[in-house]
Amino acid sequence: MLLAAKINLLIITFLVAGTSAAQESLRPDVPVAIVGGMLLDGYEAEPIHNSVVVFEDGRITAVGQRLNIVIPDNAVILDASGRTVMPGLIDAHMHVDLIGHGEYDDYYTFLNEMERLPEAMPIAAKQMLRAGVTSGLDLGAPFQILEFRERIRRGEIPGPRLTISGPWITRIDMAGIPDAYEVVINSSAEAAQRARELIAAGSDVIKTWEGLNEADYRAIVEAAHAEGVKVHAHLYDQEDIREAINAGVDVFQHVGSARNLPYDDDLVAEIIQKNIPVVQTISHRIWVFPATENFPERLYDPVYRKDMPADFYEEFIRSFEDIYSLTYFNDLEEETRNSELSASQFIDAGAYMGVGTDAASPLNMHTEAMWREMSALVEVGMAPLQVISAATKTNAEILGQIDDLGTIEVGKLADIIIVDGNPLRNIEVLDYVDIVIKDGGVWYSERAAFGTVTEIGHAF
Ligand SMILES: [Zn+2]
Fold first, then answer.
1. Which helix (H) or strand (E) holds 459?
2. Which domains are delineated in the chain?
C-alpha cells in the first residue's frame, strides 16, 4: 500500500515535470504581473481590490494588494483594470470527444465510430480553454484520449489540463456508442478485475455507469482505492445512491440534477455528514433546452463555423433541424417537473458541492456549458462567490490536485482567467473570458487583443 502510494507519487511528479517542460515554449520568458483587477482567489473570501498577481515559469510568485507587492523590474504588466482576476475554471464532469451534436447515434456514425475522434477532440478542447476552463475531468472516452492529452501537454493543441476516466464500468450496454467507451461486466469479481485493468491502462479515476449493485460498487471501490484512485459514480436513483454510499464511492455525479423527486432527507443528510462531493450537472438538459427554445439563435453562433472543419459544422447544424425530436430530450417534461426543487436540495442542506457540466452533451456546447451551469446553480440558491469557489477550489480538491490548482496563491500553477466586469454581481459575465492563462501560457480573445497581452500571448 505504502509502496504503491510512493510509486504513484513518483509517477505524478514525473507527469507534472513533463507537463512543465513541454509547455515552456508557450510561456513568456519574463515574469508577468497582472495589475489593477479585482481578485477572487478561489476561497469564499472578500475580493482583493486593486490587486497584483505575479507569475513566472508557470507558477504564481506573488499575490496581494498593489501597495504591498513589489513587481519585478523586468515584468511585463498585464493591465486588468475594470476586470476580475480569478482561478481558471475546472469542469468536474465533461466529455472532450463531444461537441454538442444533437443525437449521439448520428454523431458516432458521422465520426465513423471513432476514426474521426482525433479531429473532434481539438474542437472541444479549444472551446473549453477559450471559455476559461483550464482543467477538466473527462468522464468517459476510449483510451485514444491519452494520446490526445499528450498533444495538449506538448503545446500542439490549445486545451485544458485533462484528468481522465477512460471507459466507464457498467452492467448495461449503452446503445449507440462504440464499444471502446464502456466495459460491460457480469459479476463483482469481474468489476474489480476490469477496474484494475483500466487503472493499469491509464485511468486517473474510475467512472461507473448503470445497473451496478452494491457488491459491484464495493469491489470497484476496493480495487481502485488499493491504487489510490477515486471512484466517480453516475447516479440518479435513490436506491443506487444508497448502495454507492454504503460501498464508499468517492464522488457522486449527476445526483439531484433531474428526473427524480427530491431525495429523502436522511439520504441527503448522510451524504453531507460523510462529506461526499456532489457534482450535480443540473443544466445539461433542463436549463439548456429551454434556453434553446427561447433563443434558437444560440445554435448558429458564427463561432461554431470558425471552430469546426466544414463537414463537422454542416453535420452539427443538421442535427438541430428538429430539436423537439431529439432522443436526449424525450423525457424532458418529466425531468423538468421537480428540477428546481431537486437541484436546490443539496445546496440548501449545505452539501460539499463541485461543479460539472456534462458538456458537450446535446446542445450543451463547451463554449457555454460552464457559465450556464454556474448560472443555473446561482438560480437555485448558491451565491456567485460560492459557485466560483466550487468551480475552482472545490473541484481541485475533488480531483486531488489542490496543491497545484484551484486557488490563486504563491507556489500554485499559473492557471488564471481575466473577465470583463464583476461576476459577483452577475455570474453571466463569465460568458466571455478576455484572457486565459494555463500553466503560465497566455491566451487572449479577440475583444482583449490590445496592449501587452498581444506581445506575450497567443490569440484564440
Ligand atoms: Zn457525462
1. strand 458-459
2. 2-88+406-459 (2.30.40.10), 90-398 (3.20.20.140)
